[in-house]
Amino acid sequence: MSTEDEDIDGKGKIFNIILIILLIVAVFWANYLYFIKHISSNPERINNFLLTDNNINKFKIPVTAVFFYPYQKEKIFSSQMPPQILVVPHSGYLFSTENLQKAYTRLIPWKDKIKKIVLVVSAAEKENGLKAQLPLIKKTFGGNVNISTFVYLPEEKENLAAVLAPYIQETSSLVIFSADLSGYYTSEEKNAEIDSAAEPIVKIAQQNHLYPKVYDLVNFEDINEQSFRINEQKKVLSTLEQEVENLSSFAHLYGYDLLKIAKVSLDEAVVYHKQFSPSRENYADVLFNRGAVYVDLYQNGKLRGSSGALLPSQAVAFAVAQNSYMAALEDKNFSPISKEDLPNIKIKLSLLSGYERIIYKNEADLLNKLQVGKDGLVLRDGNRQGVLLPYEWQQYSKPAEFLNNLKIKAGMSPAYWSNSIKIYRFRTVEISKNDD
Q1: Residue 397 is part of which domain span?
Q2: What is the mean predicted confidence (pLDDT) over 254-273?
């Protein structure tokens, strides 16, 4: 063989090696894209979720915010139904803007469907009302909404219903009442002020057959003292409280989607005995952030199946789908759910916060530190572990009963105690079919 032939053979081998490498890279890249698109979880956690849409970020609890929805036979309304009236304060026990922001985040899902807003404010409160509301309306809806303002005098309250009726009856319109419901009044002044502000709103809602949903009503008696307001401004939320706020925001915006995933997974499990895997093509990317979730299934008000995980090891969308399947078919405490059962099955999801270890001196000290109705608990002692979610306080109203049943779940006697027991508290945010 000549030197020229050897050179040709050598170049051919190099070309083949390069081609093989390119094919391997192409196959790897194609599989990687498929993995990212269909399977993998994002590294972020839903416990750190913050509302950032239109620069509405962190919010404080408003003094009061009320939404009015069209009345339905069963008095049920969902987060998929736009409100017709929003009643929101322009003053509060902290700063007006912070009080308002949480109410406006409730409107984010409707920013593309609400085309006209009528801002209603009394003449006496015109300056403060417009100053507080207009910036947040613009932040929430951008330039996609037509904003009108209606300033009324006290003697015109009787005519408000007739003037606003056309807008209230349009599903693409929203009427916003700006009212001064701050805590800077004595009890007598406070009651008179609220009654005066609420009178025309309640009358209009009744005449238009609207059903109210109250969000975040703060007890005025708790905020009368200036010292409280100062302390509240300096207050730093604990990690658990912060995570609950984050999860509540996440649940409000994406709870309907999680329930939809649970329902599809439940149907697939019971009807076809298949596990449903949500696709990124059909759901928001944030649903593929990691989250810990429990799925509880109820039939005629009684628990019918339960499954969940304590740690956020996978995307919350996958966790909901997987645990819906397991709760329906693999909970050993119940028989598998049948096709006949499906119409009567109700779904409840519990999003879990992180964990905080409770340091105690003895069992009595531990019982004193439990927060009834709020704490979910994890008990660990060697290989044994038990979990009770916060809603299970409904069955055990006393801390001792709750702890004893937690021991039973861990395979212990209720009378057993050892100071080597480790107890962790956590919180949950619950989502069910009729939640907003």
Answers
A1: 356-431
A2: 95
